[in-house]
Design brief:
By secondary structure, the protein is of the alpha+beta class. Helix content is 20%, strand content 23%. The longest helix is centred in the last third of the chain and has 14 residues. It is globular, with a radius of gyration of 16 Å. The model has no long low-confidence stretch (mean pLDDT 83).
Length: 171
C-alpha cells in the first residue's frame, strides 16, 4: 500500500464479505452480541465501523481485525457457535474458479444466510483469542457458500463456492 488513496486499514480476510453499509451493520450487530456488560456500541460508517466506548471515546476501525481488537476487553468467553438471533447477511463476492475445499470437513455448518455475520464475528473473535482451529461453512445466499479455515490465530483459507439450485445442504 502506497497510501495515495488514503486507505489506512490493513487488508483483512473478511473484507470482501463486509462491502457496503448493510453488511457492515450486520457484522457490527454480530460483534455487539458477543460482548458482556455495558460495553461499547458499534456503528457502521463509510469505510468500516465506529466503536464508541463507555467512557465516550470513539475509535474508527477499517477492518474486522481492528473492530474485534477494539472491543476485546468486553468480549464474553467464547464458546461454541450459538448466536441467540441472526445479525444479518453479508456481501457476496463472486466465486473463484477451482476449489480445494472439501465440504465434509467443516466442523461448523450454518445453513441460514442471516447468521453469516454472526459466524464471521465468532471466527474473528476466536482467531484473536487463541481458540482452537475450526473449519466452517456458511450459506451466503441461495446459491453461494462461504468456507473458512482458521488455525493457530491465522485464517488459512477463505473461499466462496457456487452451487446449482438446491445443491448445498451443508455437507
Amino acid at each position: 500500500m502506497c497510501g495515495a488513496c488514503g486507505e489506512r486499514a490493513v487488508l483483512d480476510w473478511a473484507r470482501p464479505f463486509v462491502a457496503g453499509l448493510p453488511a457492515r451493520a450486520s457484522l457490527g450487530s454480530a460483534v455487539t452480541s458477543l460482548l458482556v456488560g455495558t460495553g461499547p456500541t458499534v456503528r457502521p460508517w463509510g469505510k468500516g465501523w465506529v466503536v464508541s466506548r463507555p467512557t465516550g471515546a470513539s475509535v474508527a476501525c477499517g477492518s474486522v481485525t481492528e473492530l474485534v481488537a477494539s472491543v476485546r476487553p468486553w468480549l464474553a468467553p467464547l464458546g461454541g457457535f450459538a448466536p441467540s438471533r441472526p445479525s444479518g447477511r453479508l456481501a457476496v463476492p463472486p466465486p473463484r474458479a477451482g476449489s480445494s475445499w472439501r465440504p465434509g470437513e467443516a466442523s461448523v455448518r450454518v445453513l441460514v444466510p442471516e447468521y453469516a455475520a454472526d459466524l464471521v464475528a465468532w471466527l474473528e473473535c476466536g482467531r484473536q483469542t487463541g481458540a482452537p482451529g475450526v473449519r466452517a461453512s456458511c450459506a451466503l445466499d441461495e446459491r453461494r457458500t462461504l468456507h473458512v479455515e482458521a488455525r493457530a490465530g491465522q485464517v488459512l483459507h477463505t473461499e466462496v463456492m457456487e452451487f446449482p439450485r438446491g445443491g448445498w445442504q451443508g455437507s
